Amino acid sequence: MTVPPYSRSTPGCLYAALDDKRASEGMTWAAVARALWETSGELNARRPRDHPISTSAITSLRDKGRTSCQHVLFMLRWLDLPPEAFLGDGREVTDIRLPAADAAHRLRWDVRGMGATLDDRRREDDLTWPGLARHIGCQPGQLSGLRTARYATNIDLAMRVVQWLGVASTAFIYCGTW
């Protein structure tokens, strides 16, 4: 089974949803970036060396159509929508909810956990990394590297992986303190 690619139009859809909310609240993109960051205000106060999400991390969705799975969680938290809402297949997502994070936490993607689950399933299905990569539509190193990733992968790959695993993205999203 080859996973249909995570629609390239979805970052544009995510950008449009952010822009709609921004406009309806009369905010600039800089104000949106501050609002995203401040959803974790208590954590930010305890971790002053952390870097706030930048305006360009948001607005680059419009031009580049890519972002990391960690950055997208700031945006999705603000919109109160799961990643599946932007798969681009036209279905309405009502049964998947992001974990409820308070101001002392940030939503984080467990990339290593996703990589370990992917590796377990790959072994169960007797697939090589190159074979699995053909199914998912990426390079083998992109998949094998998930088990040791320090921070993130792109949301496109993360969503193709969870679709191949047949689980909701929220199986790998948690409330973190980093």
Give an overview of the whole structure:
The chain contains 9 helices and 2 strands. With 178 residues, the protein is mainly alpha-helical. It has one domain: lambda repressor-like DNA-binding domains (434 Repressor (Amino-terminal Domain), Orthogonal Bundle). Strands 1-2 form a two-stranded antiparallel sheet. The N and C termini lie far apart (36 Å). The mean pLDDT is 91.
Computed CA radius of gyration, to the nearest angstrom? 16 Å
The CATH architecture category equals Orthogonal Bundle
Distance between the termini: 36 Å
What is the count of DSSP helices, taking H or I runs of 4+ residues?
Answer: 9
Element-by-element helix/strand order: HHHHHEHHHHE
The CATH superfamily is identified as: lambda repressor-like DNA-binding domains
Q: What shape does the CA trace take?
A: globular
GO molecular function: DNA binding
InterPro entries: Lambda_DNA-bd_dom_sf
